Structure formats: structure tokens, C-alpha cells
Structure to design on (278 residues):
């Protein structure tokens, strides 16, 4: 598998995982494999939607410029827009801050049949919040277990959860921030804050390591995605999604068959009734 799946209880060390990995593939071979996986994902989304027994929640986290927006654009390319929804989590509003940190998140989890993508998530509450000490340490420390309990609730009630950390190197981030400054079409994304956050890189890596270590569970695993190469990032994410969804397909197909048989029986009963009254 191209993504690194974090086994529960294993201590994550990000510097041991190469952000510029390519899985021994050329870009052409990687793009071709990605296209196959994307086609499979498209079929599975249809089944997920029609069966209506599960939701899929994809959580994307990563430093600024790690490629969250690009990954969403590419990985969702073939999906039916009617069955997808993207939620972006920004600095909390006054109303959101007046509630528990999961309030705004729980409200927008995908309903059964839907694919929900989180561009940032409740993990910000143990990342940026920790790095900038926005709440006291005992408050953010308690959140790892609160997050695990929340995700367990979602999983036990039909939500399939895939969490991806887009892992780029500090050097690659510098290149991307500089490229943004050069490219007029990307200048709208410029933010002096991104350079300021970059100064806290090692604090962020420590916060990510603890979140990935403490919150990778069987019901909601973390995947570390080598993300210096955009084509490899997309490939690794879609592979993680496809491999997670595949085991459900037999159930979905059985549910769809049962629905089809029931509909057909209904239709036949209707036709028989019509013949009787004629
Ligand atoms: P962007 O993803 O570039 O649109 O930026 C969104 C910003 O919102 C980032 O700087 C995040 O760190 C910030 N953000 C998201 N969630 C939270 C949170 N729970 N607390 C504080 N800041 C947050
Ligand atoms: Mg940003």
C-alpha cells in the first residue's frame, strides 16, 4: 500500500517517513493506476449511495500548502456531486467557541449514503490549538480520548472513517509558498500567516505525531500520505479509500439486490391489479 497506515498503539515518528516517496513508480504509471482506482471509487460511491446503509467520511489534515485542496479536486473528480459534500473548517466563530469543540463537527458529518470530505477537522483542536496554547493543556489533552469516543460513535452507527495526513517536507513547503507568490492565479491563497506558522514547524510536527499516535484506531485509522509529489499523494489517498470500501461491497450489492427484488414484486403486483380491473 502506498499510504502508511498507522497501527493502533504504534508511536509515529514523522521523520522516519519520506515525504517524497514515489513507490518506485513513474509519474505516468502512477497516474494510470490512479485513474483505475478512481473508476472503481466511482462505482463504489454509486453502491454506497443506493444501499444507504453507510456513510463515508474522509478527513484531510496537513500543513499549509500540503495539498488538501488539490487532493479534494482530484480524488473526487469522478464522483457524483449529488452524493458528496466538502466541509472546510476555519477559525471557529463566537457561537462555535461557546459550545464543545465537536459541536460544529457533529452537525456536518455525512448522512448514510453520502461521502463527506473534511478539509481540516476536529483535529485542529489538538493541533493549532495546542501549538498556540489557545486553551490550557489539560483541556486539549483530554481531547484525544474525546475524539476517539466521538469517532467510535460514528463508526458504530454506520460511518466509515478514513483519515489522511498529507506529509510534505519543510523544504517543499517553502518552494510552494514561494511559487504562490510568483503565480498571479494563486496569489489569492497568499497568507503572511502561512510563513508565521512555518516558524512553528517542529511544534506542529510534535502535535501531529501525538494526534496520529493517540487517535489511530481500528474503527478510524490514520494514513500518512507522502505528499511532496502531487500525483503520488492522489494515488495513495484513492488507494486507501478503495481498499477501505471494498470489503463492504458484497453487503451493498446484497442490499441492492433485495431492494430490486422488492421493487419488481411491487410492480408485478401493480400490473396484476391493473389487469384485474380492466
Ligand atoms: P485555510 O485552511 O487556509 O482556509 O485556513 C483555515 C484556518 O483556520 C487555519 O489557519 C486553521 O489553523 C484555522 N482553524 C481551523 N480550525 C480551527 C480551530 N478549531 N481553532 C483555531 N483555528 C482553527
Ligand atoms: Mg491556508
Amino acid at each position: 500500500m502506498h499510504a502508511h497506515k498507522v497501527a493502533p498503539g504504534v508511536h509515529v515518528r514523522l521523520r522516519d517517513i519520506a515525504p517524497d516517496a514515489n513507490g518506485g513508480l513513474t509519474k505516468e504509471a502512477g497516474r494510470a493506476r490512479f485513474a483505475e482506482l478512481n473508476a472503481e471509487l466511482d462505482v463504489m460511491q454509486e453502491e454506497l449511495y443506493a444501499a444507504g446503509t453507510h456513510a463515508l467520511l474522509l478527513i484531510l489534515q496537513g500543513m499549509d500548502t500540503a495539498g488538501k485542496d488539490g487532493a479534494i479536486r482530484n480524488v473526487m473528480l469522478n464522483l457524483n456531486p449529488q452524493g458528496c459534500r466538502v466541509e472546510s473548517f476555519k477559525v471557529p466563530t463566537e457561537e462555535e467557541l461557546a459550545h464543545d469543540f465537536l459541536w460544529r463537527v457533529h452537525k456536518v458529518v455525512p448522512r448514510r449514503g453520502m461521502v463527506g470530505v473534511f478539509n481540516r477537522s476536529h483535529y485542529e483542536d489538538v493541533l493549532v490549538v495546542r501549538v498556540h496554547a489557545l486553551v490550557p493543556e489539560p483541556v486539549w489533552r483530554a481531547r484525544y480520548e474525546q475524539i476517539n469516543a466521538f469517532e467510535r460513535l460514528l463508526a458504530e452507527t454506520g460511518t466509515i472513517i478514513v483519515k489522511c495526513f498529507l506529509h510534505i517536507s519543510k523544504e517543499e513547503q517553502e518552494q510552494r509558498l514561494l511559487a504562490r507568490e510568483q503565480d498571479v492565479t494563486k496569489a489569492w491563497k497568499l497568507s503572511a500567516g502561512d510563513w508565521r506558522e512555518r516558524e512553528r514547524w517542529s511544534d506542529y510536527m510534535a502535535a501531529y505525531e501525538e494526534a496520529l499516535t493517540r487517535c489511530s484506531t481500528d474503527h478510524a485509522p490514520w494514513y500518512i500520505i507522502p505528499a511532496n509529489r502531487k500525483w503520488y499523494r492522489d494515488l495513495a489517498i484513492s488507494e486507501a479509500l478503495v481498499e477501505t470500501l471494498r470489503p463492504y461491497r458484497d453487503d451493498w450489492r446484497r442490499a441492492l439486490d433485495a431492494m430490486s427484488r422488492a421493487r419488481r414484486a411491487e410492480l408485478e403486483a401493480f400490473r396484476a391489479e391493473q389487469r384485474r380491473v380492466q
About this structure: Residues 89-92, 120, 124-125, 128-129 surround adenosine monophosphate (ligand 1) (CB under 6 Å). The longest strand covers residues 159-167. The first helix runs from residue 27 to 51. Strands lie at 4-5, 55-62, 84-88, 115-119, 159-167, 222-226.
